[in-house]
Amino acid sequence: MFEYIRTHQRLMQFLLLLIIFPSFAFFGIESYTRSQAAAGANVATVAGHSITQQELDNALREQMDTMRQNYGPQFDPKMFNTPEVRQNVLDELIARKAVTEEIRKQNVSIADATLQQELLRAPGLQNANGAFDNDKYKQVLAQRGMTPAVYEQRMRQNMAFEQLLGSVQNTGFLPRAVAERIALITEQEREVQVLNLKAADFAAQVKVTDDMIKAYYDKNAALFEIPETMKAQYVVLNAEALAAQVTVSEDDIAGFYKSNTKTYTSDEQRKVSHILIGFAKNASDDVKAKAKAKAETLLAEVRKNPAVFAKLAKENSDDPGSKEQGGDLGVMVKDAFVKPFEAAALKLKQGEISEPVLTDYGYHIIYLTELRAAAVKPLDEVRAQIAADIKKQKAAKSYSEAAEAFTDAVYQQADSLQAVADKWKLKLEVADGLSKQGNLGVPATSPVNNPKFLKALFSDEVIKKKHNTEAVEIAPSTLMAGRMVEYKAASKRPLDEVKAAIVAKITQTEAEVLAEKEGKAKLAALKAADAVAGFSDVKVISRAKTEDVPPQAFSAIMKADVQKLPAFVGVNMPGAGYMVYRISKVNAGNPDAARRASDAQQIANLVAQQELTSYIDLLKKKAKASVNKETLKVSPETN
């Protein structure tokens, strides 16, 4: 019954989840903190701050890009070009801005140590020894065009979102009486029999005339249309195609290595543990003095025997994020710790333990458990990667230089693609069976299925004048051009060719009508006088046990009034016939403690989500959010 209800999930996802699958959790975050000087009309106002037309357009574009990546050629950008979609995206922007304002008012902040622990737990960023790999961290962020500072600021903002909204979501609960009532409904069993009036059994009674066939053929002309198709030549110009023509010399590799030595240098890595003797920021001098004394006592113990550091951390540390790991903080990430802590940790040699270090959180005893010096990878180790990088750069430069000339050549030499293929050493490909929807026989990612290319290919310029298409940009830094080889206009299948299929369809439809008529008559008779003739054996079904009952029939059975038994329900089954169900008995069913607990949790989660929605609506009212309705009109066709 509750399969559709999602179980509780974290409100924000971090690092690789963000990097590989950009989630809506970070969608628009920057727009809440950026300057309001963005160009364009204001579409909404929240807490005295504007959401500009540019922000809304950017948000729509980000969503479209994500959908395009997920669905490829099947994605239709026109689906975003509606007032409803624009309203939904704007609502999300308003909600997030209202939440951000509440975070500011309540001074919700994320401690450096908390951020550090969350970062160190991020999946996929550990080296072979299980330690945080700072080089991999930087590399992954660089691939997304982000620096650690920018990413960590976003991460801090989203943790603040989670802290505020999570506290509200966690207040939702399901009263025990409601959970018990739902459990009883879920577990209730009904004993049923079915009388199946199959449409196939009535087919012999159907008489299909020529007039019926002609009428169906004329009314459903689109079903028998053969779309226009084309056989076409095409070429694709991109950096990948040009890379094969690029050569890389040893001098190129050596020079690149020398100029980019820093890229191949691994940073110094310091693995640290600590024991925190904490106190509040407004603690008295006496409390601080006691904390310092305790820290000095522990320091004396660990300096005598560093092997007990982890044990003492578990027993004494006030840092909940690291104490269970024996104080282990993993590999230090630059600027992730408060300055006094970081400065002290950077002075330590491997195996050294610091004096008590005072920060706003208390006194820290810092232990440098492992130190790896910075090291430069030898040229031989990175030679292949350097060669690939140089080739990629040269190919990108070649593409940049060739793009305009390619576009001009395709246009000026409109009667052939051979010249451009020869000039840039491109493969002249052939695609057959193309329609305006592409070719289902090849992968959706194939360039011949690109909507922009297909639109250009099926233009009058190509079909009637037999010219090349224009050079179409089908992806960033990728141009494609094509021309017609053979063309077949749209046509309609002759009636004789499809007559048998039409007869079968009419027969099926009319047989279903006869089955429904007979079924309704039997249903009325059974309600007047019970009978079991023709019914199947008894089946026991419940909301937790549907057996092989079709969904629409199951719904009808469970909604049936069973105050008087036997009860009967009739269900029309399109494509199959008509079914009459006889409900003879209702049982309480067997309690399932595990399922009850699972269902209750899922419903509680749904209640929590509703609490969260109500809270956000309240914040929007509190922030006096207003919308300029005129800005939600459909924009020109989105590309």
Automatic annotation (TrEMBL):
<feature type="domain" description="PpiC">
    <location>
        <begin position="267"/>
        <end position="370"/>
    </location>
</feature>
<dbReference type="Pfam" id="PF13624">
    <property type="entry name" value="SurA_N_3"/>
</dbReference>
<keyword id="KW-0812">Transmembrane</keyword>
<keyword id="KW-0997">Cell inner membrane</keyword>
<dbReference type="Pfam" id="PF13616">
    <property type="entry name" value="Rotamase_3"/>
</dbReference>
<dbReference type="InterPro" id="IPR023058">
    <property type="entry name" value="PPIase_PpiC_CS"/>
</dbReference>
<keyword id="KW-0413">Isomerase</keyword>
<dbReference type="InterPro" id="IPR000297">
    <property type="entry name" value="PPIase_PpiC"/>
</dbReference>
<keyword id="KW-0143">Chaperone</keyword>
<keyword id="KW-1003">Cell membrane</keyword>
<keyword id="KW-0472">Membrane</keyword>
<comment type="similarity">
    <text>Belongs to the PpiD chaperone family.</text>
</comment>
<dbReference type="InterPro" id="IPR046357">
    <property type="entry name" value="PPIase_dom_sf"/>
</dbReference>
<dbReference type="InterPro" id="IPR027304">
    <property type="entry name" value="Trigger_fact/SurA_dom_sf"/>
</dbReference>
<protein>
    <recommendedName>
        <fullName>Periplasmic chaperone PpiD</fullName>
    </recommendedName>
</protein>
<keyword id="KW-1133">Transmembrane helix</keyword>
<keyword id="KW-0697">Rotamase</keyword>
<dbReference type="InterPro" id="IPR052029">
    <property type="entry name" value="PpiD_chaperone"/>
</dbReference>
